[in-house]
Amino acid sequence: MDLAPLAGAWNVRPMPTARAGERAFAVALALVGAASVAGCARRPACAGEYCGTLVIAAAGEPDILLPPVSDFSITRDVTEQLFLKLAELGPGGTTVGDQDFAPQLAARWEWDGPTTLAFHLDPRARWQDGRPVTAADVAFTYAVYTDTVINSPFRASLREIAAVTTRDSLTAVFRFRRRYPEMFYDAVYHMRILPAHLLRALPRERWRSAPFGRAPVGDGPYRFVAWNAGESIELAADSAFFLGRPHIRRVIWRFTPDQQVAVTQLLARDADAVEVLVTPDNVRRVRADSQFALYPYKGAAYGYLGFNLRAPGDSSAPHPLFGDRELRRALAMAVDRERLLRNAWGDLAALPPGPMSQLLWIWDPTIPALPHDSAQAARLLARLGWTDTDGDGIRDRAGRPLAFRILLPTTSAIRRQYGRLLQEQFRAIGADVQLDEVDFGLFNRRAQRGDFDALLNTWNTDPTPSSGIPETWTRAGFGRLNYGRYANPAVDRLVERAAVLATDRDAARRAWRAAIALLNQDAPAVFLFAPENVAAVHRRVENVVIQPDSWLARLRLWRIPADRLTARDRAEP
Amino acid sequence: MTAWHWLALAAAALAALAAVAALRRRARRTARGRRFFRHPAAAPGLVVLAFVVTTALAAPGLAPYPPRAQLDIVRLADQPPSLRHPLGTDLYSRDVWSRLVYGARVSLGVGALAMLVAVTLGAAVGAAAGYFRRWPDALLMRVVDVGLALPRIFVLLVAVALWGHVTLGPLVLLIGLTGWFPTSRLVRAEVLSVRERDFVAAARALGAGPARIILRHVLPNAAAPIIVSAALGIGNVMLLEAGLSFLGLGVPPPMPSWGNMIADGWPKMAVAPWAALAPGLAISLVVTALNTVGDALRDALDPRAESA
Amino acid sequence: MAAWLLRRLAAALAIVFAVLTLAFCAIHLAPGTPFVSPQDRGMDPAIVARLERLYGLDRPLPVQYAKYLVAVLHGELGESFALRRPVADALAEALPNTLLLAGAALLLDFGLGLALGVYQAARARRAGDVVLGNAALFVHSVPTFWLGLLLLLVFAQRLHWFPVGGTHDPVLCRSVASLRCALDRGWHLALPALTLGVVGAAGTARYQRAALLEVLGQEFVRTARAKGLSERRVLLVHALRNALLPFITLGGLALPFLLTGAVLVETVFAWPGMGRLAVTAIFQRDYPVVIAAAAAASVLVVLGSLAADVLYAVADPRIRAPGA
């Protein structure tokens, strides 16, 4: 604040005294003091097995609490406490057949034919406004998830389901287009059932910004209480939940700008749980603090630098740089993935052998991938005509420099770190890389539009490769999640075969291996990291069951025993 | 840091001290100079400024490593200060001292250039308003009123949002274009008082045009507030640039500026605080020095405003 | 007096008008349809249609300008796609938080600044004054957000004396219903307000010291001393009263500084105010929000300086002369 203009701006002459003002101030102060003391009321406290308040520190914030419309993982964390699926995947994680699935909304099911599956809903299931959950809700949900106007990110996963009809008020019938190993998984995993009676009247174009999404009514173990924009979301346990009353009474998410701040909040005791600790420093700090227990689990995510094979914003033309397979291979070989991993993750992540997370059963470090070889990369670039003709350190060809931009979201500290590390890796072989750091929402929109040269992205994989890899790395994913528009017909064929062979693990594994090896040779991306997650939860919380593909899926089983309640657990809102 | 670098650093410090001492000797001859150095903090402030400017200019000789070089991202990241890395390394294993020294160029450069833009524009507008009076004055001062009402950082945020990718040049221009309003007020006040003086009337009588009168007669006498607000303004601009770079809207990586060094070091504050502490301290010291020198200048050049 | 007040009001209104006009130009310079974030064609068509009608987007520019002014007066500021709600709603939620922060910082600023200034004036040119003076200058020169980071690191992360961010504890206090919750909010407000306030206080102290010293050299002070009044009484009762008046003007001037500082401090402390709203909106290319926040901040500044001017006129009977 520059006070220079004020200098010399006022005159000085004696001021008349004003005693009355001073007296009034003293009286006001006394009044305020009295009022504060009076406002100090005693409140009842909670005691017993069903108390407990869990505060979760999370980076980012949900966009809208409406399952078909959002694929943010933080949204999923919240909505899976509010809305139920027909059946839930157990810890075994096998997506073939139905042995590893436990009943949720559906009490039992049977096969009425090779492609017909009937679910019998649990008659005890209720929406939080009292109405029973019926098969009409299931049919409505299917219609919403497959609606083209709503354009749900999950729509493609339901393509093998031909129709969902109701046989009676508690029986929903799924008819499939063909028979394949993961039919049950597709029927139950992707959709969260929605209340038809509350949402039927909503026009399809308004789903993206529906007010219901800011104050949802569900049938899950928790009920929505409040959403403080930019700060927190609070849920309260439904004591009449038909699958068992949740032990933890209140669940509150606190939103932070990034994961590092979330960990800081944990250490400052402002939060009880955090999904991932991300860096080895954080693990060390949390481990040193004896109040927290660490829960390692197989990460369901992998991160990569994806090249856009088509021109930014114009998918009909090839990308001037990355349309060339040899250039992509050269750039991929220039990156020392191992060293980048050590710098960013320490020992908390592994190098993905391809587009897969550690959770997937096809994880196999022996799958052939492009080696790190900067000399070879340099030779390849020179052979392609990229040489440094003007001595500025950047290769050029026909007057064009070897330059591109990497798109990444500001919300991910890890990706920002990788952005800067990659800048230097590419500079070392003569490529000039600039970073486009944008907000997460904008990042997603530009990725979907194909408006980028290269992007740093992470995928949370489904428990089975056959639902994720076709979406992201084959022609079937064009216009959906295959942002870079990479397609190799040989790879597509192998992926299809692998999905068909799902019942025969060994045959399927061979097919997947071949597909991934072929994909690696085409270098549509540089696969950078597959984290092993370490969650941290306060020690007083018991029975912490973490589902690898969705860490809070079993939240209703977590408990805080009566003898370990803290003041925060006991406080009534 | 090798011995040569330490020697060069010492040489830079000595050069700064010598320059200020020489300046002081010369200044003692004039009343203004004596008034300037009467401030106990004026000389140290000048020394700091001279030292920082010298290190910025001599950066290649003082920085043992290139500022964007990631030395060994596996073993040398987040290293505490040592003999080899006097200010430690950041999370990308870049030498903080080298980046600090090169960052001085960017931060000081942005500060000086943006201030130049602001002061030039402000002086021009203020002189025009003060000299011509009537409707140009009314119009221009209304514009200045509006300009003073807009909080500077919000205007910059809007400008950056509309612009898209802001590179260094446009950034300097934008910062300068949002900062000329106080200067214009000051200059106008000075011009208003100077224009009534005899020599201006004489020049007008001799047929000199307004531009000539303003440039050769009026402005040199109104120089005092311009110089003072320039000195103080550079500090403001540096703080503003630091803030913008911290938000991610200022100097783009990997070019180091003191602001984006703080932004890089923030996530690792708990583990490697030196990466964010050093640039912050540097900014604080330089802005303090600028404020001190600005204060002393104000007293030296404008005997009316004694701050006791 | 009344004439002066009316003129002042008119000037303030003119500036607000100009700010709104600038905002209008900015909106039309932004890519995409004005008032509607261009980022996704999936925007609710009903909302888009309503906005097109409201702002007359198919009509000539002067008509659009008029409609825009009417709309703003009705509180219609466009739709934010990124936040999936009207801009006015988001701004209305964020504004009180920024005002709270700025208000608390202003109190700290003046309180600390006054105390420091008085102490320094009392000990003018002696050791205490010189040391404190230089220290204050240093603190005033520190980047506000850097100070915030330091305070956060030391007092919140290391010592756990203060919370790490946010406005309140969502577990204990969803609303300010009791003394405990009010205290909780105050506890969360402490570090951000301290950051902003301390930097401002250093500047205020310098100014206050200079002002006091000038007053202390005046006739009436010498008279008071001659009357045999103690130094403390002279300083605190007589000199201070005169030197306090510029505080009102300082308050008006402090608002732009506080709003600027608030943008950075809100980011560091995750305080959900206007500044953080604007910064997040920039990264989302959410133009209606950025422009609305900037316009709102400017209007606040105008109102603040207007209030300061009026208060000054009310408090100081000397300047109620016509034509002042």
Summary of the model, kept short:
The complex is a heterotrimer of chains A (573), B (308) and C (324). With 573 residues, chain A is of the alpha+beta class.
Describe it.
The complex is a heterotrimer of chains A (573), B (308) and C (324). Chain A has 16 helices and 22 strands. Chain A has 573 residues and is an alpha+beta fold. In chain A, helix 8 packs antiparallel against helix 10 (374-383). The longest helix of chain A is centred in the N-terminal third of the chain and has 20 residues, at 19-38. The model of chain A is unreliable at 1-22 and 36-41 (pLDDT under 50). With 308 residues, chain B is mainly alpha-helical. Chain B has one domain (68-78, 86-300): Orthogonal Bundle (MetI-like fold). In chain B, 56% of the residues are buried. Chain C is mainly alpha-helical and 324 residues long. Chain C has a domain at 95-320: MetI-like fold. Chain C has helices spanning 2-29, 45-55, 61-73, 87-122, 127-141, 144-158, 179-216, 219-226, 231-268, 274-283, 287-315; strands at 79-80, 85-86. In chain C, a hairpin with a 4-residue loop joins strand 1 and strand 2 (85-86). In chain C, helix 4 (87-122) crosses helix 11 (287-315), helix 9 packs parallel to helix 10 (274-283) and helix 10 (274-283) packs antiparallel against helix 11. Chains A and C meet through strand 10, helix 6 and helix 12 of A and helix 2, helix 4, helix 7, helix 9 and helix 10 of C.
